[in-house]
UniProtKB/TrEMBL annotation:
It comes from Ephemerocybe angulata. This is P-loop containing nucleoside triphosphate hydrolase protein. InterPro entries: G_AIG1, GIMA/IAN/Toc, P-loop_NTPase. Keywords: GTP-binding, Hydrolase, Nucleotide-binding. One of its GO terms (molecular function) is hydrolase activity.
Length: 341
């Protein structure tokens, strides 16, 4: 995981031999969760999962969260746990911006505090920066609370990737020493049966959304005041420009709200479908239990009938033998003049 353009897919292709699409432009190329074919590192079978960033150019953050969460929940339900998580960050960035911080905050909420020990923060694109400057930035990232220090304090590790296959394999080899663990969002969705919107990651996205709304509100207020000032000084052209800006910002907010409503509707529909499946499965189990009970009772009744038939036959056989014995005694009495020796 990581911000769009951080080199996630390039790293994945290099170490796995895959050919996922990459881009040098501003648009994201990873618009779905991509899974590599298994490959071997030190005799171990490895599969890498490449995910889009939460700053994707074609999807909202809620869409990206839904994509990732559905994949993680499905794999967890199938009995698979992740051995490690790689968060990719460009050391060439002049500073870690709001988008990168937002990606990492959401990433931490996906993982949960306990799973951070299986996280590797990979800094790459070292060839694009002076080594000494890169080391200074790396130290800042690792020692400041605003950046990666809280995660490193929880057991995460920071490693360098210089673009070579060897350094990429070192990251994988380190991860292979981890104990696979369920992520927080997997436990929330599968074990606790929460909706996606009830997860900690969704809360983080909602917090970012509310912060963005507040920034938009402050910006709209500023624009409004500027518009009033423009009206007072009769700067009609400036007023029209501010109105256009306010309209565009409102349209963006409307799109964000529409995305939110659509995700909520999808989650509600999936919840109803899940409840219907659970009810149908329960009815099936009840019918199966009743069928098994009937079969058991029928077998018991059949066994009882066989036992009764056997007992009846035995009584009839005993009676026949008794009559035959009586008849034999009667013949002997007649033959010996009534004297039985």
């Amino acid at each position: 995981m990581g911000a769009t353009g951080s080199g996630k897919t390039t790293f994945t292709n290099l170490v796995s031999g895959s050919a996922f699409r990459t881009s040098n432009g501003l648009r994201s190329c990873t618009d779905a969760v991509d899974v590599t074919e298994p490959f071997e590192v030190d005799g171990r079978r490895v599969v890498l999962v490449d995910t889009p960033g939460f700053d994707d150019t074609t999807k909202s953050d809620t869409d990206i969260l839904t994509l990732i969460a559905e994949f993680l929940a499905s794999s967890y339900q199938s009995g698979h746990k992740l051995t490690g998580l790689i968060f990719v960050h460009r050391i060439s960035d002049f500073r870690i911006g709001g988008i990168s911080l937002k990606n990492f905050r959401t990433f931490k909420k996906l993982c949960g505090e306990q799973t951070l020990r299986n996280v590797v923060i990979v800094t790459n694109m070292w060839s694009e920066v002076d080594p000494q400057l890169g080391e200074t930035r790396e130290h800042e990232l690792a020692t400041q609370d605003d950046f990666f220090k809280p995660a490193l304090d929880k057991g995460a590790k920071i490693m360098r990737h210089n673009g070579s296959l060897e350094s990429a394999k070192l990251v994988i080899q380190y991860i292979l020493g981890n104990n696979p663990m369920a992520l927080q969002i997997q436990r929330e969705l599968v074990d606790e049966r929460k909706d996606i919107l009830q997860t900690a990651a969704a809360d983080e996205i909602e917090r970012e959304l509310q912060a963005e709304k507040e920034r938009q509100r402050v910006e709209r207020e500023r624009v409004r005041q500027e518009m009033e000032e423009a009206a007072r000084v009769r700067e009609e052209e400036m007023r029209r420009q501010r109105e256009d800006e306010a309209r565009r910002r409102q349209e963006k907010l409307d799109r964000i709200e529409a995305d939110r409503r659509r995700v909520e509707e999808n989650m509600e529909r999936e919840r109803r479908e899940w409840e219907q499946r659970m009810w149908e499965e329960d009815q099936h189990r009840k019918r199966e239990s009743e069928r098994l009970q009937r079969e058991f009772e029928e077998r018991v009744a059949e066994e009882r009938r066989r036992t009764e038939d056997q007992q009846r036959w035995q009584r009839e056989e005993d009676e026949r033998l008794r009559r035959e014995l009586e008849w034999q005694r009667h013949r002997q009495r007649r033959h010996h003049g009534g004297c039985i020796v």
